[in-house]
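Morning F.,

Quick status update on the modeling queue. The single chain you submitted on Monday has been processed. Sequence for confirmation:
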Amino acid sequence: MLEVLVALAIFAAMAVVLVASYLNILTAYEVAGRGLAGELDVRFAREMLLAEGSLDAALAGADFEGADGARVKWKAEVEPTETADLFLVTFTCEMDSTNETPARTVVETFRLLRPTWSQPADREALRAEARQRILDMQITPPLSGYGFGGAPAAAGGGGGGGGGKNTVGTGKGAGAGNKKPGGSGSGAGSGKKTPARQNTGGRR
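Structure tokens below.
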């Protein structure tokens, strides 16, 4: 009898855990569905802005009923840039609250290329400024201190070889002359020395 009661208690605990897990899964699916509906509303509002060809209509915005029944309103703030027909857009999408979802606002900033939003005079002025910037970048002054040879001239000349006096026995110099012992030669010598002659007379 005790074993049966323990088994029933374990079964009841497992049933409670299974029911709680199932309810959590259902709640997660519901929250994900509400989030997906909100993302769809924002995406649809953004596509309405991208498809708008009039600048006045884009600034005024529009409103519609969202996927979950909430009222969705969007508007845009448009600022020109230094490039012709390119605009900096601040997109704002506001979604009203419902019984299941709270109110929220989404703000995005991006750039749009819209030639129909530009005024002809402003477009020509921006294009003229762009052409002038390109010309200024192409014209570069020559580097000072450099001639057509590609490198500045070195100051001073190279020293000549073998211009000093040579001492006996040093063998220094760059020329081809011969030296005898006891004499000093100037100019370029090859360093070759002639040995002294030995006395070939009679021995003592």
